[in-house]
Every structure is written in C-alpha cells, then in structure tokens.
Amino acid sequence: MAFMDRNYDPVAGYQFNLNTALLHETRSSAWYAVGLLARNEKDDAEHAAKILTNIIGGQYHNTSEQWYGDYEVYPEGPYPGTEAYLAVIYNSWDPNWRGFVGTAFIIIVEEFGHLLPHKLEERLIQSIHLSALGDTYRVGGVDDDNLYPAYSNAAMMKAAVAGWVGRQVNDKNLTAEGETWGGEIIDLFNLNQTLSEFNGPTYLGVSLLALTLWAKYLPSDSVLGANGARMIREIWDLTGQLYNANMKNIAGPWDRSYSYDMQRALAIAGLWIWSFVGLDDAPMYRMPSAMAHVDDFEIGPLIAVLAPYHRQFVSNETIKSLTTFGEEHIIHRQAFSPPYDTYPRNITTWLSPNLTIGAESFAENVVGGPSINPAQFNPAVVQWLRKDGSAGFITLYPEVEALQAMVTPGRLNLTYPRGNASSAFTLHVSPNVLGGKRDVGGWGDVEGVDVKVSGNVDLTPTVAFCGVVGGACDPVNDFDLWNFTYSMPPGSTKVPNLVLDIEWKDE
C-alpha cells in the first residue's frame, strides 16, 4: 500500500500508469480500492468510493461491440474501434480486465461493502453483472479471442464472476455459464491434477486468486464452491515439490513466465508465498518496487485480504518446502491445453540443492506454447544458485511446434522430431553476477556451472548478447541475456538433437 499510495492521484481518483507521462490506469486502481477499504484509515473509504465511481463510469455499454461490459484500459485513451484507434484485442482493449476488475469488485462487496454508500454498492453489483454479460461474448477462436477452459487464469476468473453475480441478481443464465465453464475447467484439471496453464509463476498466482473466490464466495452446491478448496490444495502440493527454497524459485518448465528469476522479476505466486513465510524468505527482492514487472505488485492488496482464508488449504509440508529445501528428487507430471496440444504435455523436473532442470515434451499446432507467445513459453529451463544468492538460468527459446525432452539428474536432452537441417536450438543464458566475468564467448565463461554439449548439432555455437542498451538482440522480459544458438551441420539428414550435461560449481 505504501508503494501504491505513492502512485495515487487523489485529484483524478486513479492510480498512475507506471512508466508513462502521468497517464492513469483502471485495473491497478480497482486493486488499490481493495487495499484502501482493507486499511480503512482517515479518508481511505472516500477515495475508494471515488475510484470505484470512476471505473464504473468508464465501463462500455454498447451491446453491439466485442468489448461490451469491459473496462477502459486507461481513462485518457480514445474509444476503441475507430479508424484512428483500431479495436485490437489485448491492446486498445483487454477482455481479461473484466475478470481482473470483476474479481476485485466481488472482494469489495463481500468484505467491505458496508464501508461504501449503499447506492454505490448496488452499482458495483450492476457493474459486475454487466461485466459478466460482456464476458459471454468470448469464444475461443472467434474474433481473435483465445478464451478456452485451458486458459486457466482467465477462465477461472470468468467462472468466478459469472457464478457469483448470477446468484446475486438471480440471472440463471449467468449462473449456468459459471457452472458450465467451471465444469470444463475442473474436468481438464482432474486429468492430471494440474492447471492446463502449467506452472507459470505469474499466472499461477492469478489462478489461485480466482480459486479462492470459488471456495470462499460460491456455495457448496456449485461446482465452483465444491472444488475450489481441493484444487488450491493440489496446486500448492505440486508447487511445493517444484520449489527450490535455496534458490527461492519455482523450477521450470514454465508455460507462461515473465521471469527467469523470481528474485529479480516480480511474480504473483511470490506474493502468495510472501503472505505465508514473510518477505525475507519469499522469492522476492527485499525492495519489491525495484523489481522488473513491478506492475503486478499492485495486485498485492487482493492477496493480502484473501491469504488468511487461503492459508488453510496449504499443507504444513508445503509451507516447510517454501523455506527449506529437502532432498534431491524428480517429478513427472502432465498438462493438457486443447485446442493447441495434440496430446498432453509430458513434464519432468529434477531438483537438487543448487541446480534444477525441467522440460516438457509437446506436439502443438502453434509455436510459442498455448499462449502463442515465445517470450513467455519456457519449455526447457535450467537454474542454478549463484554466489550472490540469485538464480542463473538457461532456457530454450521456442521456435518449433514439437519437442521431445528428456531430463535426468544433471542432463537435458532435447530433440526436434519435426526438425531438419535448417533447425536451430536457441538458448537464452544469464549474464554473470555483478563483479563476475562480463564478456561471454562460450560455456567456459558462464560462472557457476560446467556445461558440456553433445548431440548431432554443430558443437560450436553462435554467441550474441541481448542487452538493454545494445547488442545483437533485445532483452527478453527485461532480462539481459546471452544467446547461444546451435545449428545443424549443412545438409544434415538427422533429427536435430542437443544434449547438455550440467554440473554446479561452487565459486
């Protein structure tokens, strides 16, 4: 809240949009309103009411438009859908903001409605209703929309908002909409006791938030209310097994991630862990406002409000794993994301005290994973503990629709089953820590690990730097990195294969 207080414009009644010329933002303002009402000191409730009135006033009401019931990305922006400001999904308008704002509004009504004028509380419920109606316009594969039950965090928010508000206003169609979506999400989850959107440190945190609403605010005769607590428990059981407390990181692979190291780029799952074990033991920098992707810090008030209830579903064994690494172990799981996956993705992760290796085999009809975003999809990940306490990383940048991956202790074996002589393996590798070797020409210059390469690729990689102020390529998710590219020998007829044997070095 101290961070958000500094970014609040009390005259406008909005949070400032970070890294802009004093523009404002809708979603973070809704999250801030939750925090103001939870704190409820001095004029907090009055400012929350002002913010909520502003957000409701900026909601879209035209039933003929795809963004019907959605909220403005920012209040200064032009109206989407004009010749000068084309309607571009996830750009000039964002359908997921119905879920992000709607879930915040539900928390406000359930927890703090008594602090608001009665008419404003009624308007909040009407706004949530309008948002849920607009969300019925979303059909995966139609009009550039990608909302399927496998899009876990967004689908779970949709189900929560529809199921909750349908009961509030006696809209049986919306209640049924929430139950239908919830049932399909649960069916996918039950296949493997995993989220389809597997193990993403940011979106895992959002899914857990939505499931908390299922468990806390939906009745037991709802499929949402009946399954939310169980799903939270099973997600945390797996997350505890994938967490390396020495490195303060969730081991890969990650279906969607903005972070190669949770101590340097803020991930929402880290905020949940902070709420359980405290900031010192959490996968966070001691000053979270300095981290990359800091805008996700602004969801903190929602997690702080829900965490005391949520904690009961996290086992003591999992809590222990968040502060103390146990024994070396291997995890085998699956996840399935129709319509993109030909078959469930097969996941293997090996964890040791100072080194983790995780990868998934898949065959898909897109490049970049189910989110169709190569910058976020990390199908093969190596992390190691460095002398400054941070995590070094090697990740495979996805450029193919299919990968066969084998993980064993200390080894990552990657094959492109549909590859050919033109294929290449692109690895993103972390620069060394401050004070370490700055120029990297090969694996011998990467500190903290010994890497030996084999396979049928040309064993001499092309090495390039991707830096914030220069280099051969741009940073990815705000991380500088070294790009190691292994190509096939000219004219090769072999199926491309790359093997990394990796050993941690204490330096």
| Computed structural class | alpha+beta
Rounded mean pLDDT score: 97
Order of helices and strands: HEEEHHHHHHHHEEHHHEEEEEEEEEEEEE
Overall geometric form? globular
List unreliable stretches of 5+ residues. none
Q: Tell me the major beta sheet.
A: 12 strands, antiparallel
Assess the beta-strand content as a share of residues.
15-25%
Structure overview:
- By secondary structure, the protein is an alpha+beta fold.
- It has a domain at 329-504.
- The chain is built from 12 helices and 18 strands.
- The chain has helices at 2-6, 27-39, 44-57, 96-112, 118-135, 152-168, 172-192, 203-217, 223-242, 268-277, 300-310, 316-321; strands at 8-9, 14-16, 24-25, 243-244, 249-250, 329-335, 345-351, 355-363, 380-385, 391-397, 402-408, 411-415, 424-429, 449-455, 462-467, 470-471, 481-487, 497-504.
- Strands 6, 7, 8, 9, 10, 11, 12, 13, 14, 15, 17 and 18 form a 12-stranded antiparallel β-sheet that branches.
- Helix 6 runs antiparallel to helix 7 (172-192).
- The longest helix has 21 residues, at 172-192.
- The radius of gyration is 23 Å and the shape is globular.
- 49% of the residues are buried.
- The model has no long low-confidence stretch (mean pLDDT 97).
Task: Provide a short characterization of the protein structure.
The chain contains twelve helices and 18 strands. The protein is an alpha+beta fold.
